[in-house]
Fold:
Amino acid sequence: MTGRRGLVKDNALGLAFGGFFVLTLVGQAISGTADYNAQQVANGLEPVSFLDYVTSSSFGVDVMENWQSEYLQFFLYIFATVWLVQRGSAESKEPGDEGMESDEEQRVGAHARADSPAWVRAGGWRTTVFSRSLGLVMGGIFLLTWAASSIAGWAAYNSEQLADKQDPVSWVGYLGEADFWNRSFQNWQSEMLAVGSMAVLSVYLRQRGSPESKPVGAAHADTGETG
Structure:
């Protein structure tokens, strides 16, 4: 029992946000069904079941648009913080430390330790890939969710086209439609605002005990410190 409690405690952050994710996704599905059916009734159409809604392009495009904007945010931030700094921010490296850093600082090659990941100690292409793996995976997930959102958006768009007695468009044609880019930019701009705000506000504001904040007593100009 102690081991199980320790496992939960050691992974509490991931488990908590996994739970929050499931709850909010279910909440979105329930409220989305109600909203969709209200529109159906207002248009003189039959309401749909919960299962029909969660397997529809309308639900799929809403979910995928949110997911791909989040992964775009992390992908860009991971790579941007290699080369760009924000003096005084807990989210930034020190000015002057821009770049990939030395093998010694990164514990790579001859500086790898016995407890370093196996691919770090292996050297060659495996170390090269592993040293960029977080950004590559985030970028890959973004591309997959972007593709999924474009396909779901295309299906939803063509449903509206057919309902209005207009010709459907191809997937490539949909990528050139204002509807697709309006949906994309609507989500992307909110992520850019959130990341930029976090980087700048952490210069002047504190949250005691959070690693996303500097220590409460740290000077505004102190950079890269966490509390």
